[in-house]
Design a protein that fits this description.
This protein is an alpha/beta fold. The chain has helices at 13-19, 46-54, 70-83, 94-105, 120-132, 146-152, 175-184, 234-246, 253-264, 266-285, 304-310, 328-336, 385-396, and strands at 87-91, 111-115, 136-140, 157-163, 188-192, 209-213, 227-231, 290-294, 317-322, 342-343, 353-356, 375-379. It folds into 2 domains: 13-261, Aspartate Aminotransferase, domain 2, CATH 3.40.640.10; 267-397, Aspartate Aminotransferase, domain 1, CATH 3.90.1150.10. Helix 5 (120-132) links the parallel strand 2 and strand 3 (136-140). The longest helix is centred in the last third of the chain and has 20 residues, at 266-285. It starts with 12 loop residues before the first helix and ends in a 5-residue tail after the last helix. Bound molecules: pyridoxal-5'-phosphate (PLP).
């Protein structure tokens, strides 16, 4: 067996996540790598110190704990391969992975474009710290086309931020068309690709920097917080790694190890959860209490054609908009009655979740009334789908007719 199974040859996804970044014979023959914890890295000599430090941006350069160690490198290589990029920086949370590239590419006087449907804390960063530092943000309709985006681009627009589908509202974006406009105007294209993990290859669609909350499907067990920033060029790597390190971003090697363990089973989990999510989403579509289901893989989704063109599959997170006759309080009571769904944020774990979206949707470029009724976000886990549907059936029966 080769010592290093990291390979760019096109293999199936299950094979890829089973073999990527395994230590091979280097780890006394053990299947899994070790957890390397540490701050100080010893230099072999004073003379060697200079050349080792100078290699700080090189792959797997061991200089000091904050530049990562073998456990980080194993996860970085694995995520870079899953995302189809060349280099990856692991940071402590998914939110940090959103923040690092925004702060890396933007400075005072710059302009940034963020979709109205972006993950809420990304918006908070733009409206708070970034605004305070003199970085201006324009929120745009996630459904914007190339012409619309051209009209929003300015000479100082340095970043087009994207997230497809959008958080809570699940609008799909035409990433290749928007990326072409951004690049023509000299802006970098950043994408929060957490929903699209594995199913969307960002660098084949014009993205420069791909963000993942590894907390979700990669961790897969709701017991770890981690984020990744993946790039596809040496130039971008130096900007991202430089900014991440200037700000002291770091992740625990124990958490990286947990993420690597999660990655080994991610292909089967994603496959199961995609099918289970679609089954539950279709069931919701047939219910009289439901106005519409926000799932990009359903033909009823307004941008289903974009999903079909650019994605190879779906994860198990979607929204359900209920009839406008229901109040938020009635929906809360229905969710409270669920036995198998936890009420909580995050997603991508093994367990099912339900989260009323009241209070989670902020809009400035589009209408806050866009959904047409109160909504609940569902994450479908690894329980038997029939049990989940029976649980939902009982809960929906408590809603007034
Ligand atoms: C789309 C998206 N991006 C980023 C994050 C941030 O991830 P984390 O919880 O690891 O900070 C989340 C978390 O819910 C998310 O939903």
């Amino acid at each position: 067996m080769p010592d290093d199974l990291h390979s760019k040859t096109r293999r199936g996804f299950g094979t890829q996540v089973t073999h990527v970044s395994r230590p091979g014979v280097r780890n006394h023959g053990f299947v899994n790598g070790a957890v390397h914890r540490g701050s100080t890295v010893l230099y072999p000599s004073c003379e060697a110190r200079g050349s080792i430090n100078a290699a700080g941006f090189e792959k797997h350069a061991l200089t000091y704990g904050t530049s990562g160690g073998p456990t980080h490198f194993a996860l970085e290589d694995a995520i870079a391969e899953v995302e189809g990029g060349t280099r990856c920086l692991i940071v402590g949370t998914g939110l940090a992975a959103c923040a690092v590239p925004l702060l890396a590419y933007l400075k005072a006087g710059d302009h940034c474009l963020i979709p109205d449907s972006a993950y809420g804390p990304t918006r908070r960063l733009a409206d708070g710290l970034m605004a305070g530092w003199g970085i201006e943000t324009t929120y745009y309709d996630p459904g914007i086309d190339a012409e619309g985006l051209k009209a929003l681009m300015r000479p100082n627009t340095k970043v087009l931020y994207t997230e497809s589908p959008g958080s809570h509202t699940f609008e799909m974006q035409d990433i290749p068309a928007l990326a072409a406009v951004a690049h023509a105007g000299g802006a970098k294209v950043l994408m929060d690709n957490t929903w699209g993990i594995h199913h969307f290859q960002p660098f084949q669609h014009g993205v420069d920097v791909s963000i993942q909350a590894l907390t979700k499907y990669v961790g897969g067990h709701s017991d770890v917080l981690l984020g990744s920033v993946t790039v596809n060029s040496e130039e971008d790597w130096r900007i991202i790694a430089g900014a991440g390190r200037f700000m002291g971003h770091y992740a625990s090697p124990d958490d990286c190890w947990l993420a690597l363990r999660g990655l080994r089973t991610m292909a089967v989990r994603l496959k199961h959860q995609e099918a289970a999510g679609l089954e539950v989403a279709r069931w919701f579509e047939g219910r009289p209490e439901v106005l519409r289901v926000l799932h990009p893989a359903l033909p009823s989704h307004p941008q289903h054609a974009l999903w079909k063109r650019d994605f190879t599959g779906a994860c198990s997170l979607f929204g359900v908009v209920f009839q406008p006759r229901y109040s938020a309080a009635q929906l809360d009571a229905m969710v409270d009655g669920l036995k198998l769904f936890g009420i909580g944020a995050s997603w991508g774990g093994y367990e099912s979740l339900a989260l009323p979206t009241t209070g989670y949707i902020t809009r400035t470029a589009t209408s806050t009334e866009l959904l047409g009724g109160p909504a609940v976000r569902f994450h479908i886990g690894l329980e038997d789908t029939a049990d989940l549907i029976a649980d939902l059936d009982s809960a929906l029966a408590t809603l007034p007719r």
